[in-house]
Specification:
- By secondary structure, the chain is α+β, with helices and mostly antiparallel strands.
- It has a single domain, classed as GTP cyclohydrolase I, C-terminal domain/NADPH-dependent 7-cyano-7-deazaguanine reductase, N-terminal domain (GTP Cyclohydrolase I, domain 2, 2-Layer Sandwich), CATH 3.30.1130.
- It is 22% helix and 39% strand.
- The protein has a four-stranded antiparallel β-sheet with strand order 1-2-3-4, with helices on one face.
- A hairpin with an 8-residue loop joins strand 3 and strand 4.
- Helix 1 runs antiparallel to helix 2.
- It starts with a strand and ends with a strand.
Length: 116
């Protein structure tokens, strides 16, 4: 078995998230995802079909952002982790979300790790 870490770093998405009345409008959220991906053997050919195509994570996150209002960053992270773990090659996923515009002097976020 061969293990890789596939990373989607710093994806900024405008989405509806939060519990406060002023958070009904979309706000910027920065997401980073680290996936531990396991392959049966070393990757010997240079073809996308041989590895996890990380486009599904970006596309899935964008779809989640369009589909609903998240009250909590924790539930957003859980949804992104579930999306990633939908691929059986993903053994562990770390998801970090950050609301970048909540405070003028700091960002606020959370991070989770999920595995099978």
């Amino acid at each position: 078995m061969v293990e890789f870490t596939t990373i989607l770093e710093g994806l900024e998405v405008a989405m509806r998230i939060g519990i406060h009345p002023h958070e009904v409008a979309p706000q910027r959220v920065r997401l980073s995802v680290w996936m531990t991906v396991v392959y049966d053997e070393p990757v010997r050919d240079d073809r996308i079909e041989s590895v996890l195509d990380y486009d599904f994570v970006r596309t899935g996150v964008l779809a989640l952002a369009d589909a609903r209002h998240f009250a909590l960053q924790e539930t957003l992270c859980e949804a992104v982790a579930a999306l990633c773990l939908g691929d059986p090659r993903v053994r562990e996923v770390r998801v970090r979300s950050t609301k970048v515009d909540v405070y003028p002097d700091a960002a606020i976020g959370c991070e989770i790790v999920r595995g099978r």
